[in-house]
């Protein structure tokens, strides 16, 4: 390996007549690019593909992901969105985001472009897993789909308590027609049985 100098299984640069070889873990440290798409090519630093987009960051430009400064030009460690040309980020930051987002959700942090953005990231060696985003695992946001289910009236009159609700009648629970974040039993807010909608005080 030209990086660490040790023997063992190595990858050779895919460019003809280039005999540089390196271990996969050493590749990133040396600025090598490994493309995680067919045909899974690897390139030494001299032959690594670079972003074709012409762009230079403004002074004091920060990474859109970690908000730390980026270099003053495109480099192996500093990348830019090929579409908007104003979203700059560190290679490590976009790699971390790619591992979380997966191919279905990875996009430019600024303009939200995903097609040309994905193609460019694949070309410069960003590994994007072919799976759903990690935040979909273990029903992380399942509570967002839950319906509000208790009476928020200042004084709840229901004999069964705030959590009790019936399908119809005085103890039917109506949710605010604007925000759906508050609810009331009909009787607790003095609503008739014929009333089909209710709006909370906040709305």
UniProtKB/TrEMBL annotation:
State one molecular function term (GO). zinc ion binding
Entry-linked SUPFAM superfamilies:
FYVE/PHD zinc finger
Q: Which UniProt keywords apply?
A: Metal-binding, Zinc, Zinc-finger
Identify the residues that the record assigns to the PHD-type domain, covering every copy: 1-48
Annotated SMART domains: PHD (SM00249)
GO cellular component, alphabetical, reads: nucleus
Provide the RING-type domain boundaries. Answer: 63-112
Query: Which Pfam families would you find in this protein's record?
Result: PHD_G2E3, zf-HC5HC2H
The protein here is known as PHF7 protein
């Amino acid at each position: 390996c030209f990086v660490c100098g040790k023997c063992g299984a190595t990858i050779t640069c895919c460019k003809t007549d280039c005999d540089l070889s390196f271990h996969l873990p050493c590749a990133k440290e040396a600025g090598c690019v490994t493309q995680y798409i067919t045909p899974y090519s690897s390139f030494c630093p001299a032959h690594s593909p670079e972003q074709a987009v012409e762009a230079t960051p403004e002074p004091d430009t920060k990474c859109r992901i970690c908000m730390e400064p980026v270099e003053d030009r495109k480099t192996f460690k500093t990348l830019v969105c090929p579409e908007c040309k104003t979203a700059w980020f560190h290679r490590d930051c976009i790699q971390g985001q790619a591992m979380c987002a997966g191919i279905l959700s990875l996009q430019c942090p600024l303009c939200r472009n995903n097609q040309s953005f994905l193609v460019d990231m694949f070309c410069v060696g960003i590994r994007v897993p072919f799976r759903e985003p990690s935040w979909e695992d273990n029903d992380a946001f399942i509570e967002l789909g839950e319906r509000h289910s208790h009476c928020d009236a200042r004084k709840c009159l229901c004999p069964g308590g705030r959590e009790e609700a019936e399908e119809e009648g005085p103890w039917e629970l109506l949710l605010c027609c604007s925000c759906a974040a508050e609810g009331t039993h009909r009787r607790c807010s003095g609503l008739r049985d014929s009333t089909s909608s209710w709006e909370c005080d906040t709305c």
